[in-house]
Write a structure and sequence with these properties.
Chemotaxis Receptor Methyltransferase Cher, domain 1, Rossmann fold, binds S-adenosylmethionine, alpha/beta, about 280 residues, globular, 7-stranded mixed β-sheet, 11 helices
Length: about 280
């Protein structure tokens, strides 16, 4: 019987780990800790396979070279954590509705309203924002209302743009909402597939955007959702972001963070905490 020589899968050595961690931090703010070496190794092995490389040292040399520039988004995509679901931390959506209702009550006809889902992953968050608006403030949707949804990871942005979710990804969205706002089809193995309908699609614009890079948006936001994103950043990177978010908000706007994220000393950055993980600019 002929023997098949199986080569061992590449190991992520400490030098390569340091090189990848340094690049990830510089490119995206992600802080990689040595305890996660095994997870990072398994996430990156498929990149080595795709490029026909047998060692992490070769991969590091490539991704840091001029020719390897196109590989950098793939590296960041492999390192980001994209877990999300519909109506995650529902209390934030209810508070957003309060803010938008008072804007409608106090503003003259046709106010411009903007919400930003910063770190939107595969789109469940902006779609939950859109469904909350359509359900509870349909007059808002009839005004100049838009949701901007951005993420650094081109793979998830592309997914979100398709707006198509196999049933297993629709956790959190009720049967009624799916029936009302999604078109139902089926995907592989006859699993139901829910595709965002016209009403939802018209409200959301998806774009790739690195939060560490300059932000091209000119209008101010009524609400910014940046949830479960800064948890992967160090304090310095987080503290550089808070003033930028404050500057991007309307005076009565709200910033929502994830359940395990906080602004330490919010007053230092011109914010007050008005509800769990919810911040509003302070007016002097
Ligand atoms: C865990 S998901 C959060 C999704 C959604 N906000 C939620 O709470 O369900 C984190 C997302 O942040 C994105 N992300 C990480 N670093 C980023 C950066 N520097 N700029 C923009 N997005 C980033 C990741 O690609 C990922 O999709």
């Amino acid at each position: 019987m002929p023997r098949i020589a199986l080569s061992a899968p590449p190991e992520l050595d400490p030098d390569s780990f340091r090189a990848i961690a340094e690049l990830a931090y510089r490119e995206s703010g992600l802080t990689l800790v040595a305890e996660k070496t095994t997870m990072i190794q398994s996430r990156l092995r498929h990149r080595l396979r795709a490029l026909g490389l047998s060692e992490f040292a070769q991969y590091c040399a490539f991704v840091r070279s001029d020719e390897g520039q196109d590989e950098r988004p793939q590296l960041i995509s492999a390192l980001t954590t994209n877990v999300s679901h519909f109506f995650r931390e529902k209390h934030h959506f209810d508070l957003m509705i309060d803010v938008l209702s008072s804007r409608i009550a106090y503003t003259s006809a046709n106010p411009v309203m903007r919400v930003w889902s910063a770190g939107c992953s595969k789109g469940q968050e902006p779609l939950s924002i859109a469904m909350s608006i359509l359900e509870q403030l349909p007059e808002c949707a009839a005004n100049d209302f838009r949701i901007l949804a951005t993420d650094i990871d081109p793979v998830v942005v592309k997914f979100a743009q398709t707006g198509a979710y196999p049933e297993r990804m629709t956790k959190g969205a009720s049967h009624n909402l799916k029936k009302k706002y999604f078109e139902q089809g089926s995907c592989a193995a006859n699993e139901p597939l829910f595709t965002a309908g016209r009403l939802l699609r018209e409200l959301i614009r998806y774009n790739q955007l690195n939060l560490l890079a300059p932000w091209p948006m000119k209008t101010k936001f009524d609400a910014i959702f940046c949830r479960n994103v800064v948890i992967y950043f160090d304090v310095e990177t987080q503290n550089n972001l808070w003033p930028r978010f404050r500057n991007a908000l309307r005076p009565d706007g709200l910033l929502f963070l994830g359940h395990s994220e906080r602004i330490a000393n919010p007053e230092r950055f011109g914010f007050e905490c008005i509800a769990p993980t919810t911040y509003r600019p302070i007016h002097s």
